[in-house]
Structure formats: C-alpha cells, structure tokens
Amino acid sequence: MHSTRESQDGELPTSVSVDGLGTFYICFSVFWTLVLIGGMLFLHLNRRMPMLRIRGLSLSFGAVILLHMYWIAVQLGYIYGPLMAPGVEFWIMGIWLPFGIALFHASNSRFLYVAEMQKRFIGDDMISDRRPSSKNKSLIQKWRSLDYTTKMLALVCGGMGFQLFLTLFMFVVSRKFHESFGIPGTEVHGTPVEKKAAASIGWEWWPSVFWQCFWAWIVAPIILWRARGLHDTLGWRVQTIGCCLAGLHATPMWLIGLYVPGMAAVNKYWIPPQWIAVSIMLLEIFTIFLPCWEVIKHQSLRQETLESIARWEARNKGNPDGSISTDRSSSYVSWKKPRRKQGTSISSSSNNSVLTMDALEHTLIQNPGPLQMFSALKDFSGENIAFLRRIAEWRLKFYAVKGIDRKMSVMSEKNVPTSPTQQVDIRASFEEALRIYIDFVSSRGAEFQVNLSSTDCKKLAGIFEHAARIVYGDVQTPDPATPFETPGWRADDNPVASVRYWGEIPEEFNGDVFDDAEMSIKYLVLTNTWPKYVKARRSMDSVESLEANSTSV
C-alpha cells in the first residue's frame, strides 16, 4: 500500500517482494496477531468480572478487529503494495480505519459516561425518581429513554453510514481509480508508477484519516479534561491517555511521508501508512493488554484477600494444625452465618483483621461514606455499596425499629388478623423493596445492575418483576387521563410518590427477601473493592504521616 518501488522503464513490479525485510514483516504480523488473539481470549474468558463487564468488551473487540485488519494490510503493504490497485487501497483505508476508530470511540467514551453516572451514588439521597412509562412518547422522549450504549451505537452507526457514503461518492467522482467515468480533471497521467504514486495522494484520502486525527487531537483531550479529577483503579484513565498520545503522530507523519520529497528514501522500507499502524499497535496494547494486566493484578489481590481471611478465621477458630483454606465456596458459606460485629480500624488493625467480612460490615454500619466515595469515583462500582446501604435502611425502617418479625410473610398477613397500620407497613415495605429491585437488580430499570448470580436474579424477579412492569410500564400501561381504571397503578402530584403499587403482594415476600443477594454483593465487595480501598487508605495515611513528621521536624 502506497509503495511505488520502480522496475525498469517506469513499470510496476510484477511479483511480490519477499526479501529479508518482507519476511520480517510477515513473521512479525503473524506473531503480533497471535499475541493479540491470546489477549482477547483471556479477556473473553474473564468477561464476567465486574471490571470487564463495565468496559463493554464487545465494542472494544469490534474496534480492535477492524483496526487490526487494516494494520495487517499495512504491514504487508511493503510486500504486495506495488501490485495492488489504488482503488482497493482506497476502500481498505476508507472503511476499516474509520470504522475501527468509530467503534473505539464508542467503547472508550464509556469512561466519561460511567464516571459521570457513578456520581449519583455519592449522595445520601439514592431514592428512585422514575415515572411510569407511557406509550405515547415523542421522538425526543424515546431518544432520552434509551440507554447509553444504544445511543452511542446509533450515533456511531450514523457516522459510519456517512463515512461509507462519502467513500463511495469520492470513489465514483474521482478518475484516479477508474478512467471510464468521473469528474474531468481528477484523472492521473504518466507511467504506471507515476499514475500509482499520483493516485495514492490527494483530497480523496483525507476523510479516511480525519476521524483518527479528530479523536486523537480533539475528542480524547476533551474526555481527559472533563475527567481530570478522576483517578480510577481500573486503568481506564491510563488507557485513554496512552491511546491519545499514541495517536498524535499518526496523521501528521502519514502526510509527511506522502508529501515531503525527502521521505522517499524512507518510504522504500517504511511506507507512509505504517505510521498509522504504529498508532494502532499502541492502541491495541492499551485496549487489550492493559486490561489483561489489571485483571491479573486483581486476581492476585483477591487471592491475597482470601488467604488473609482464611488465616484470620483459622486463628479465631483455634485451628491446631494451622491449615488454611482459600476456597471461595467454603469462605462464602461461612460468611452466611450470623456473626458479631467487631470494631475494626484500618489504620490500627493488622492486615489479616482488616481484610475480613467483620471489618467490612463494621465500616458499612459506622462510616460507609468514604467507602461509597471510593467505590463510585475510583472503582466505578458505587452501585454495590448503594445497594447494601439501601437494603440496610429498608430493613431498619420496616423491621428493626418497629419490631416487626422479618419472617412475617404476606400469607400471615392474610390469615392472621392485623391492625391497619401493620398492613400499611407491609405494603410500604414492599414498595420500598420494589424500588430497590428496580434501581439495582432489574435488567429493565437499573442503570448499573449489581452482579448477582442467575439464581438470585430469578428469585428476586419472581417476586418483583411483575409489579415492576405494572408500575413502570410494559404491562397494562395506564392512560394518564384515566389512571384509576388500570389495576395496580395510582397517580399523585408528586412524581416520586406517584410510583405506587396497589396490586397483590406476592406470598414469597418477607423481610429476608434480599438476604442471599445482600451476602453475594458483600462477598463481591470484600474480594474486589474492599482490598483496593484498604490499600488506598493506608497509602493516604502513610503520606499524611510523612507530611506530619516533616512538618514537626
């Protein structure tokens, strides 16, 4: 591609160039492709990890595949470039490169979106403010109701469609790629080598690299500026910085290689598009292998946490042989038993005692604010802490303070005479639990779903999903003019209070309905966010201690 090695009389070579350099390009392309496939396979196998689920791997993989196809074509351009028609080169560069950049932008822009949306979990007021859905929505309302991924894909697909139209239009009107039709004055003249060289430059090629230049020089700096105060633990900010810096040189060096005569000697061995290929390779490193490294670090930290927990529990149980079990299932089951809360301080406790469920539960009860801030602004998992806090508030409000037995079910409400106040409490309890389900569990309503097992999700869906559809749409959506004609729905003036459920409460509902889900998320926090939080707090305490000592000296 863009390679114009001459033969005698200005004719193009009739065979590929498989010399020493060509052999190196082939071997390197095969090697890097296999390494890249290995990295993508590693991420795919670990795709259920929270730190990868939030990234949207499908978009990243789509972008990397398209960009790598272009990268391979460029790397092998030294070998077969003189034999390839300019029109084929034009379509490869006009489709694979901008389409790959578009998908990469859709994937990487999730960083800013997730960071902004996670801020909602910082405040104390985490009550849902959804309104019941209506079928009679305007186009703007329908657009706003779409989730971020759908919106971004719609915009990206629109941009890709425009790029496809632009590429087709310029291919048709330019006679550089075909002499039989096109706008007069766009044709090229001279020997075959001169024609190919002239067809490989010009305004027709500029839109192909515009999107790469636009992202590296404008979009990425804007994202970084808007997220300047965020320092996440997932490597997302580092990835954006690395990809931005890696792409700055690509388009300028491509233009220099094409239009500066002094670069002709370099172009014989390093064709101009290879400057873009360098940027793509660095982008692949930051997009695929940086997350791989973060996954390995997380697995190591998680294993350290499990071993610390096992040592702590073995010592508390007085294990005579000191044997340690770090099996996840055994640790998880042991935490489901009732346990006494112990006062635990991060700064004063040993590593073994801090990395335990007791320490986490103590923090959630006594001072959850800093942990909530860390999980939302740095770990992008604020929904987990918010979910635990909402459950604790719900349980305290309806069961602990009022002395209502948590095992009391709706069946007992039906069979045993109760006071009207207690019936109202049960209904209010269900409505509050329904909001928790919709905010954090439901695939239809939760912006950030908590990572529950399919068993827990099905259990909660069996209790709440029907009511959620009635209240928030999809089932018997009421006419706003006659809301009382639809069972299970009631409208008030207050948009929050209007979300009420007056239908039948499932018999399975009781005060223990969230217990399994709560313990599952606690385990997730303990093995994911909590060790990072402890490490960050210790680092902060160490810095403050050093500053205090230096000041006193």
TrEMBL record:
InterPro entries reported in the protein's UniProt record: RGS_sf, RGS_subdomain_2
SUPFAM superfamilies: Regulator of G-protein signaling, RGS (SSF48097)
Biased composition (Polar residues): 322-333
Gene3D superfamilies: Regulator of G-protein Signalling 4, domain 2 (1.10.167.10)
Keyword presence, Nucleotidyltransferase: no
Record-annotated membrane-spanning stretches: 22-45, 57-78, 90-113, 152-173, 209-227, 234-255, 275-296
Keywords, alphabetical: Membrane, Receptor, Transmembrane, Transmembrane helix
Annotated region (Disordered), positions in chain: 319-350
Entry keyword Thylakoid: no
Protein name: GprK-type G-protein coupled receptor protein
Organism lineage string: Eukaryota, Fungi, Dikarya, Ascomycota, Pezizomycotina
